[in-house]
Amino acid sequence: MNKVGLDCKVFNFFKDYLVGRKTRYLWNNFLSSFCSIDVGVGQRSALYLSPILYIFEKHLKTLKIPISIISFVDDGLFISQNKSISHSNTNIFCSYNVMSSLLLKFGLIIEHGKMEVFYLSRSQGAFNHPPLNLSVLGGPILLPKNSWWYLGFIFDRKLIFWHHIEFYTNKVISMVKCMKMLGNLFRGINPIQKRRLYRYCALPIVLYSFPV
Q1: Which of 25, 71, 82, 136 satisfies CB 3.0 to 4.6 Å to 88 for a cystine?
Q2: Model confidence pLDDT, tens digit, residues 109-158
Q3: How distant is the alpha carbon of residue 51 from its chain centre?
């Protein structure tokens, strides 16, 4: 962070937060003793990745690699737009190489098991494209997925969203069927409570894909 040129106050803030960390756990009336958690970065430490993303975008601009990146906490997404999938794969390969080197310098690594590759295509014929081979860089060989789940939404290659609608429709139908067991005309929850359950549990899934 000093090399990027950030103020020493910012550096000291993260140093104080990341070094010598301790935590303890509370369960009902039980309170554990303090445990050291010096290893790793906390889930809410997205700001730690900000200088990495800044340097990464500068490197891509210098190398003239047309890649966009979206980051949601520690979940990163590389976007390549090209009429040729082979060119897109080349751009993603180079970007992966740059990012791997940067993360290594910052003491971080990529979780290869969580990596996926997905293509959006207008092609009407069969979609049989070669995998994205990252094994030379220490990564996996990624086979293109037929559908892609990202932040609660299920994407298909043509953005028709049939997979998304089918999945969440079935989820809501199962939930409504389970609600029947909570009461009937004679006992259990009343119609007003059923309506409230439907509004708070079923409608958010249908309209906003909120996982419940």
Answers
A1: 82
A2: 777 777 888 888 777 766 677 788 888 887 788 888 888 888 778 888 88
A3: 19
